[in-house]
């Protein structure tokens, strides 16, 4: 007999018995086929043990393989996380260095601009002073020339009014003598 046929007969008997009398517990060993059930259970265990053992072993191997794979993936993920953290630290270090260099460069540029501005201011101030001195000198020359021109005009006017031919001859002779002494 097949195991499935035996199970089917047991279920058929149980269903017939429970439909006739209702459901209850029967303590008569011979009526309830306890010996047959025990023998049947022993056979099922004996025959099914290798199949059940191999099935459970296969399942256990699959579970262990899955656990081992999960642990490997966890280790890989941990390694990747550590690498990512190292890269993040390196990136942060580079960013900090760039910020420091940018600040130093900004300070240098600011100082350079200020120095150039001061130099330009000094140059403009010197240029302005030189322009003022030049303008003052030109104005002085113009004033001196104007004063000399006015003085000459005044002297000419006076000479015209006082100049006689005899006086002109005396002045010319005196100038000739001065020139002879220089030669």
Automatic annotation (TrEMBL):
Gene Ontology annotations for the cellular component aspect, listed alphabetically: proton-transporting ATP synthase complex
Localization terms from the record: Membrane
Gene Ontology molecular functions: proton transmembrane transporter activity
Membrane topology: Single-pass membrane protein
Coiled coil start-end: 60-101
Keyword line: ATP synthesis, CF(0), Coiled coil, Hydrogen ion transport, Ion transport, Membrane, Plastid, Transmembrane, Transmembrane helix, Transport
CDD domains xrefs: ATP-synt_Fo_b (cd06503)
Classification via InterPro entries: ATP_synth_b/b'su_bac/chlpt
GO biological-process terms attached to the record: proton motive force-driven ATP synthesis
PANTHER family: ATP SYNTHASE SUBUNIT B, CHLOROPLASTIC
Function according to Swiss-Prot or TrEMBL: F(1)F(0) ATP synthase produces ATP from ADP in the presence of a proton or sodium gradient. F-type ATPases consist of two structural domains, F(1) containing the extramembraneous catalytic core and F(0) containing the membrane proton channel, linked together by a central stalk and a peripheral stalk. During catalysis, ATP synthesis in the catalytic domain of F(1) is coupled via a rotary mechanism of the central stalk subunits to proton translocation.
HAMAP family, A to Z: ATP_synth_b_bprime
Family: Belongs to the ATPase B chain family.
Protein known as: ATP synthase CFO B chain subunit I
Gene: atpF
């Amino acid at each position: 007999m097949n195991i499935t046929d035996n199970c089917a007969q047991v279920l058929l008997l149980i269903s017939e018995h429970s439909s006739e009398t209702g459901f209850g517990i029967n303590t008569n060993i011979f009526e309830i086929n306890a010996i047959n059930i025990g023998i049947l259970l022993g056979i099922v265990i004996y025959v099914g043990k290798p199949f059940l053992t191999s099935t459970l072993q296969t399942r256990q191997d699959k579970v262990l393989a899955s656990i081992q794979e999960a642990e490997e993936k966890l280790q890989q993920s941990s390694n990747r996380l550590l690498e990512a953290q190292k890269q993040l630290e390196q990136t942060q270090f580079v960013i900090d260095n760039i910020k420091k260099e940018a600040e130093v460069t900004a300070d240098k540029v600011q100082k350079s601009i200020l120095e150039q501005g001061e130099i330009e201011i000094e140059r403009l101030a010197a240029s302005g002073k030189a322009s003022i001195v030049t303008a003052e000198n030109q104005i002085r020359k113009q004033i001196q020339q104007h004063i000399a021109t006015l003085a000459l005009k005044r002297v000419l006017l006076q000479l015209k009014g006082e100049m006689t031919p005899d006086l002109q001859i005396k002045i010319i002779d005196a100038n000739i003598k001065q020139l002879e002494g220089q030669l």
